## 1
Amino acid sequence: MKNFKTLLFAAALFIGATSFTQAQDKVAHINTQDLIKSMPEMATAQSEMEKLGKTYEADIRAMGTEYQNKMKQYEAEASTKTDEENQKRMVEVQTMEQNIQQYRSTAQQDMQKKEVDLLKPITEKAKAAILKVARAQGFKYVLDSTQGGGVIMADGKNLLDDVKKQLGI
């Protein structure tokens, strides 16, 4: 009976070790961040984001200049105006300041939305290519080896070059 338990234990260890070895052969890794950076669509998206950002920045700068000019004008004319007029002017300037802040907030939200809209098709294309290459090469799991992505050591198959070839880059 003791020999049977030992034999059963040895068989279980052998099967477990064999399964573990086979499972490791079915795992690959890829740095998705490097892949996406190397895709031509990413350069186009980045230039579009920069262009949009410069447009918003120019608008905000123009609004700020107008605000500064009004402030200087109203401060210079304050002593020649009535309290009622100065009060109206102060409300106008405060409204301008609020409008600038609101525009800045809206611009930031628009930039974030545009970034998501531009990146979504790029990441989906990358994911589809990764899946296609991984399936063609028989991998069951593909880990993301991007810095900080949770993979500390990646000695397995790196799919980056194969996926780039699939994408034609």
## 2
Amino acid sequence: MPDRGVLYIVWGTQATAISERSRRSLREHHPELPVEFVRLDDSLDPILGLAEKARMMDLSPFEETLYLDADTVVFGRLDFGFEKAAKHGMACTICECPWARRYNKALAGDVVEYNTGVLFFTRKARPVFDAWRRLAGSLDSSCPVAYDGKIQRVSAFNDQCGFAAAVEETGFLPFVLPLNWNFRPRYQKTLFGPVRIWHEYSDPPALHHEIARYYTNPDSVIQYLEFE
């Protein structure tokens, strides 16, 4: 079994195409890492496709795995994330919406929601993934989506609800990475330092590449940045 590698799980033509962008960026910074690419049937219902993410530990052939959503772009070396997962069992970021109680039929209180689009993990985290698989099929993860104080639609399923519930149920303590390891530009408009992983279907503006190059200079100064 390889020691360390990267896993993608994709379905649908668009996700398969955009994943090539992610894989190119990964090779630029980690040409040594093997990649396991799991492509699900394009006709798979999106809800069932998301549910398959809960199987990522079983789908990974690696001792140390980085799972990446198809719409990610890697901006630098990711050794720190692997090292923290090796020590703690898992390393991830808190979701841009940190309140898992938005799935109000399944969770309540201050349970934390994590983003499952960038997950570093090892076999130490097996209890979380076993619970995630079980809970993904039993919890009502529907979520009302509101803008300007009005409910516009109801999202029928979200894989992050089951993951949050699994972390809470098992009491597992993942290492929490800084937000620039899973930067969500449509929600996050400020940042200190460079983006490490961009998580968005739109391409990163050239400015972010310039910023990343600036921070490769050992004399660079961490700065506060705002984006439109």
